[in-house]
Write a structure and sequence with these properties.
The protein has 224 residues and is an alpha+beta fold. Helix content is 54%, strand content 8%. The protein is built from ten helices and four strands, in the order E-H-E-H-E-E-H-H-H-H-H-H-H-H. Helix 4 packs antiparallel against helix 5. GO terms for molecular function: glutathione transferase activity.
Length: 224
């Protein structure tokens, strides 16, 4: 019986975050794929409050919410650091993750999923929020510096999922003309071996996302 188990969904950017962190640390684990339309009794047992993936099970002790799980992984296992060692830089990394989860990611989803005036307003908001990330990544290879760190892992929705969404919806929000630094990061990020090996196939993701990328859909939940 594996010491570490991960309950996840291969199409979820939040689940993929945790997989990246585990593989960055070289942690062996058992992966359990969840059908989110028919959640298993074990998932509901280990995450009775949110009833969502991902859930990490370590020595039969469950931990929920991707950002919390990643910090736990970083503190529990040896290997490359995911969070910065410097207290200020560590605090700022947490700040940017919160910004991505609670502001930028939500606005980017609503930019095409919300109809009419609400959608237009969301596009404007997302465009403004992306400017902060454009400035933050300026002059850096990754948000973590020379190596992938917490913010890079948390930004996987922006780096991969949103590119597919833009193609499906015909949306031109995150472009090289508007955000050259951020798009340069995207190119380096999705071609990094750690990231590339932990992304769902584009054709499969297109199948999954296409019905979600419809006006009026509001299923994006940042806190999982």
């Amino acid at each position: 019986m594996a010491e570490v188990k991960l309950f996840g969904c291969g199409y979820s950017p939040f689940s993929r975050r945790v997989e990246m962190a585990l593989k960055l640390k070289g942690v062996e684990y058992e992966y359990i794929e969840e059908d989110l339309s028919n959640k298993s009794p074990l998932l509901l047992k280990y995450n009775p409050i949110h009833k969502k993936v991902p859930v990490l099970l370590h020595n039969d002790k469950p931990i929920a919410e991707s950002s919390i799980i990643i910090e736990y992984i970083d503190e529990t296992w040896e290997g490359p650091s995911i969070l910065p060692k410097d207290p200020y830089e560590r605090a700022m990394a947490r700040f940017w993750v919160k910004f991505i989860d609670e502001k930028c990611g939500v606005a980017m989803w609503k930019a095409f999923a919300s109809p009419g005036e609400e959608g237009e307003k969301a596009k404007e908001e997302a465009a403004q929020l992306l400017k902060f990330l454009e400035e933050e990544i300026k002059g850096k290879k990754f948000f973590g510096g020379e190596n992938i760190g917490l913010v890079d892992i948390a930004a996987n929705f922006i780096g991969y999922w949103f590119g597919i969404i833009q193609q499906i919806a015909g949306l031109e929000l995150l472009t090289k003309e508007k955000y050259p630094n951020l798009c340069k990061w995207v190119d380096g990020y999705i071609n990094h071996s750690l990231v590339k090996d932990n992304l769902p196939p584009k054709d499969k993701m297109t199948e999954v996302l296409k019905p979600l990328a419809q006006p009026g859909y509001s299923g994006y939940k940042p806190k999982v």
